[in-house]
Amino acid sequence: MSDAMLALPWALLGPEAIVLLTALVLLAAAWVLPPAVQRRALYPAAFAGLFVAAGVTLLLFPAKGDLAGVFIVDGFALVVKLLLLAGTGLVLFLAADERDPAWRDGESDALGLMLIALVGAMVMASAADVALLFVAVETLSIASYALVGLKKRSVASLEAALKYVLTGAAATAFFAFGAAFLVGLTGATDFATLAERLADPRMAPYRPFVYLGFFALFGALTFKISSPPFYLWTPDVYQGAATAVTGFLAVVSKAAGLAAAVRLTAGVFYRLPGEEGFGVGATVALVAALSMLIGNAVALWQSDAKRLLAYSSITHAGYLLVPLAAATPMAVEQILYYLVAYLFMTLGAFALVEAVARDRGTYDVRAFAGLYHRSPGAAVGLFILMLSFAGIPLTAGFFGKWYILLGALGGGRLGLAAIFIVATVISYAYYFSLVWQAFMRPGPTERPLRLAAGPAIVFYVGVFGTLAGALFFGPLLGAMRLAF
Amino acid sequence: MFESAYGAAALGAIFGGPAVAFGFLLVAGRRLGALAGGVATLGALVSAAGALWAAGMFLRSGEVLATPVFLWLAPAGGGITFGLQAGGLGLWMAVLVGLVAFFVHLYSLGYMKGDPRQAVYFQHLSFFTAAMQGLVLSGNLLQFYVFWELVGLASFLLIGFDVHRPAARRAAMKAFLVTRFGDIGLFIALWIVYVHVGSFRFDDLFRAVETGALSPPLLTALSLLLFLGAMGKSGQFPLHVWLPDAMEGPTPVSALIHAATMVAAGVYLVAVMEPVFSASPVAQAVVAGVGAWTALYAAVVAVAQTDMKRVLAYSTVSQLGFMMHALGVGSVYAALFHLSTHAFFKALLFLGAGAVYHAAGTYDLTRLGGLGRKMPFTTAAFAVGALALVGLPPLSGFFSKERILAASWTAGSGGAGILLGTTLITALYVGRLLTLAFFSPARTPTPAPLPPLPATMAIAVAALALFAAFAGGLESERFGAFARMIGEPPPSEAPAFFAALSTALGLFGLLLGATWVRRRLAAIGRTEAAADGASFGGFSRAVRAGFGVDALIVRGIGGGAMAVGRALAAVDRGLFEGIVALVVAVVRGLGFFASRLADGRVQRYNLIAVLILLFFLVVWAVSG
């Protein structure tokens, strides 16, 4: 028994192990190092850990495999992990700039928690077992709850954390509920066996329970993805949390949720024979459609920049689910490319929002007024990011959307494609309200806006990434295909 | 191995020189002030040098030069690529564009001196040069089209450079709209090619034509659409109306863009697409016919013009007609040869006109005169260009025109006759122009002594005069490079009497024009002639206005378009705006109600989540 365990390719857990180790070191730093040294040592240590983990991830590319069939390391998982690592790295730059005293007091906690959350996220990308997935989701979630509430003296932050916990608890309940049915029906927890046994013709009379299990499980994952049914926490939590944490949730958490949803849906439920009536693909399509429509429609009414971006994030969850609904062979590529584009534009946007809000004292969109006169570079960068969000050509966002649209049409989901286009058009209005504020409205001051080093890095990386993603669309896709 | 690397480097220099200059000026232009011109001229010099180097390489190896290709999008099948490549034809054009651009840049240093916006001017000029070089170095239609549009944009910016003058702005807009109309043809042709050939690359298109993959009607349609685009850019009748008005731009711009290079882009397009055109006799006949007619028509209109630049503008249209006709009868050699010589002598003529303006302050022929004695250098240079235009031996224009006449004669159409007649009329307007501007008593007193010509302007004029005079040598065996670069042998020689006949007609026309002008001036007296510009009175007004074609196009088609536009606007207001308002209301309503869901009560959030899930179940149960 122990020989068999030792014979497993534990090296596949390398990246997660390194991140976890870094997290533990960061947490221990609070006890070991004096406060003055802490600040200077924490961030480099965290970055070092991320770099090493990324390096190991790259090394794993040629040697794929799985750990007892429950932890799969394939091209998809590796690309997602790189994405998660990159996202966390950029978020760290934002976190370094966080001024809240409660945050600063517990900075090693914050970084440690973030990395633990990252471990959960990375495992989610590889998890091919219901139990492992549950543990990973909970790891990510619980660490995220704590991160949201870290600004202990901010009522908004605490409120956001509480809402997050309560919604998350409901989602966990759904997860357990759905899992119970599936595991109960088949007696197995790993996806491969589940798929095999659920596809068995003898399972036919229990089909309603299978679908119940699917709805519940997928629904639970929508909590992480920020799409209906579990989407209502997004605006409040994004608004209340520190912007660095918001960025983490918007990118890392969402990407992990999507990865898990893809693996679950594609690995188990799309294998079920014959879709009767309202099937798996249709459910995903419905979720995507609701996400796109509701997200956009409500975003039109938002006057707070962070809430606006939160609803935008809900919408993008919808866009990202479209390839999953269309289920073409290119679906995974489409999701991955769009996630890359999304990473750049979202983190860039949050960096600028935070900088502007800090300068003007409010997160209202009107704080952007006159940005062009204060900092033309930032205004132009904002313009590029908004173009990408709206999916207008010459940005990575456009190519991502175009590619997804092709997939939707190719997969026969014409109604969904139509909704996709409609939603995109609706989104122009609120994305350009920011641009309009920045270029067309006079601000109360002409004082130049200087971004601090951290946010500046994230912002400009976001802008250039958006442009580079468009310019190198072909090569980037080629590189991704190599992974598979 | 090294060959290809050097080739790529040369191509990079051709495009990159002016492109880098443009980028530099875009960012730092305003701070540079007077130095901006130097940067731009340097860029043009690099371009010309690179072109000469590349041409040398091509002549030695005979192989197409190419840079690495950047694959941008690769859907299944053909991809969208960007890269520079050129064979002999493209490289020849690059040399031509590079040289003329360099001299015009040099000239502009003197011409634009003291202008507060000269940094912007040179920025636009660099932009144009880069775009034009990119155009001739394109190996696929999409990239060609992109540069074609950019060249048009540069032309728009430069024609309307004097933003404070309404006439300049109007002229820029007119140029843009008329060429846009032609560009539609090119755009449609682009898509036809992609749909039927599966790729934008020239090589793939030519192979498809060769293997007969495209049906004859399709080839004809494609050729005609391509020609429509060429008509716009090269000012063929009736899309010529923008060229005379484009003279509102600064004179160096007229020399570079509206005489030598941009307007030549249409000729270049038809030349490059020769495999396509030669597969469609119908299209070739159209090209030949339009070319001949344009040549004649524009020459007649040029006779009555009172503005020096407008004479040259109509002359350009006419000469482009010659080139198109040559292409129509199947001789790329003759067309390109004339394109080259025309580039030199027409640019020279424009730059000379600019020198006249620099001295006398006007282009108005009714007010000029007596400059022959006052500015001998300019007069001599101008005369060289003028006589080259008429086509008198041994100047370059003679050789190139002979080739066109020979090709036309061999093809047997009536075109040769029309062209000979046009030669006579060309000589007529040239004679008139020379006499009115230089060889007649001054009608307006000019300051004496005249302000000296800046060195940069003089050098450029002198250099172009040398080219205009001696470019005929391109044909000779010693410089036999031209035929090898074009990739085509010269057309068979015309009957010997042709050369003599056209020369005689040229001389006769010159003398006729000159004498008749002098007689009129002497007979009528100074004041009336000043108003009349020595022409036919009422009839001349009609001729000057291009027989109303311009007015017809502007008022007729323009007016018609406005009427349709007004009708559509009414529909738009009533119907479509109503629909839009409805949609907006629906979306905002949906948003309002959905936003009420997120009221902050987390209990409600979870309840909604459960309800949505129940909804899924219900839908599933009902549809299952």
TrEMBL record, chain A:
Membrane topology (UniProt): Multi-pass membrane protein
All residue ranges annotated as the NADH:quinone oxidoreductase/Mrp antiporter transmembrane domain in the record: 127-427
Pfam families given in the database record: Proton_antipo_M
Keywords: Cell membrane, Membrane, NAD, Quinone, Translocase, Transmembrane, Transmembrane helix, Transport
Enzyme kind, highest EC tier: translocase
rRNA-binding among keywords: no
Translocase in keyword set: yes
Enzyme Commission number(s) from the entry: 7.1.1.-
Primary localization class, coarse: membrane
InterPro entries to which the protein is assigned, alphabetical: NADH-Q_OxRdtase_suN/2 (IPR010096), ND/Mrp_TM (IPR001750)
GO BP annotations listed: ATP synthesis coupled electron transport
Catalyzed chemical reaction(s): a quinone + NADH + 5 H(+)(in) = a quinol + NAD(+) + 4 H(+)(out)
GO-annotated molecular function: NADH dehydrogenase (quinone) (non-electrogenic) activity; NADH dehydrogenase (ubiquinone) activity; quinone binding
Entry's Gene Ontology cellular component terms: plasma membrane
Location within or outside the cell: Cell membrane; Membrane
PANTHER family linked: NADH DEHYDROGENASE
Membership in a protein family: Belongs to the complex I subunit 2 family.
Complexes and interactors: NDH-1 is composed of 14 different subunits. Subunits NuoA, H, J, K, L, M, N constitute the membrane sector of the complex.
Described purpose of this protein according to its UniProt entry: NDH-1 shuttles electrons from NADH, via FMN and iron-sulfur (Fe-S) centers, to quinones in the respiratory chain. The immediate electron acceptor for the enzyme in this species is believed to be a menaquinone. Couples the redox reaction to proton translocation (for every two electrons transferred, four hydrogen ions are translocated across the cytoplasmic membrane), and thus conserves the redox energy in a proton gradient.
Name recorded for this polypeptide: NADH-quinone oxidoreductase subunit N
From TrEMBL, chain B:
Sorted UniProt keywords: Membrane, Transmembrane, Transmembrane helix
GO cellular component terms listed in the entry, alphabetical order: plasma membrane
Top-rank lineage group of the source organism: Bacteria
Keyword Transmembrane in annotation: yes
Pfam family, one: Proton_antipo_M
Record GO biological process: ATP synthesis coupled electron transport; electron transport coupled proton transport
InterPro entries: NADHpl_OxRdtase_5_subgr, ND/Mrp_TM, NU5C-like, Proton_antipo_N
KW Transmembrane (keyword) present: yes
Domain NADH-Ubiquinone oxidoreductase (complex I) chain 5 N-terminal, chain residue ranges per copy: 72-122
Primary location group: membrane
Domain NADH:quinone oxidoreductase/Mrp antiporter transmembrane: 138-424
Bilayer topology: Multi-pass membrane protein
Localization per record: Cell membrane; Membrane
Spans through the membrane: 6-27, 34-59, 79-107, 144-163, 175-194, 214-232, 253-273, 285-304, 311-337, 343-365, 377-396, 416-439, 451-474, 494-517, 547-569, 575-593, 605-623
GO molecular function ontology, one term from the record: NADH dehydrogenase (ubiquinone) activity
Family per similarity comment: Belongs to the CPA3 antiporters (TC 2.A.63) subunit A family.
PANTHER family per UniProt: NADH-UBIQUINONE OXIDOREDUCTASE CHAIN 5 (PTHR42829)
Name recorded for this polypeptide: NADH-ubiquinone oxidoreductase chain L
Organism of provenance: Hydrogenibacillus schlegelii
